């Protein structure tokens, strides 16, 4: 029985974007025993991967001692394949029949494509999630019984410079779910990581009883189980955005100084709205002042509303056609 070591990111978004490559490995090597090494934050997303033998959450330690720990845990196994997306020394120093490493792309490409290039895969396999029964049980407990199709929003990010103003998120949610909106009468699930919870409070306060407060209440796997039930997700460039897209939810990602061509939501149900301020200007402002404010002010509220409404219309129509057997969701054009 073959053994595969898969070393992926400590960051949530990058780890999600690597799941397509991992999914390919589970399909191409049925029965293989997998060991996945990743950061502690994304680790829950990998706990139900088919064939998982070990999951190693790799918390950073001073003097790179986390890499020494990983080497000590893996050097005693002779691996049939090592896939190292961190391009680390560990991937080179453990015994293995075959090794594949991430390399910086020669041309700009989406991170999913860059990961697929590690094994020469074309087309690139899309990110996927292995949502388990426990995560769905948590979602049942967190989302009120009887809640119909709902809007999910992610008003925070791991960097303040990527956050669209909270008041705009609140107004957008009320427009989409208010009278005449495409999700009229729907509840609004607000998601944020624990350390970012305070920054989501203005949105929760503005939404009042319409809000479903999921801030700081889920790990990534439970968040995925909640998000897969949403009719639409709108959020900043963040790991939650990638989880929503991987769960198949129509997803609108908001970008200011980020890189939508590399980190936009992957797949036919993903759309991006970028700032009206040119990216080079935004990056220059960051260089001049790493704590610069207002980097997302150029993301127009009306345009986000129009993009979300159009995406909802397209995906609902496609789902109806798919149910009748006349087409498939894959026929939706991706934003590339």
Automatic annotation (TrEMBL):
CDD domains per UniProt: GT9_LPS_heptosyltransferase
One Pfam match: Glyco_transf_9
Annotated GO CC locations: cytosol
Chain ranges passing through the membrane: none
Domain of life: Bacteria
Family matches, as Gene3D superfamilies: Glycogen Phosphorylase B
InterPro entries assigned: Glyco_trans_9 (IPR002201), LPS_LOS_Heptosyltrfase (IPR051199)
Gene Ontology BP terms: lipopolysaccharide core region biosynthetic process
Protein name according to UniProt: Glycosyl transferase
Species whose genome carries this gene: Azospirillum palustre
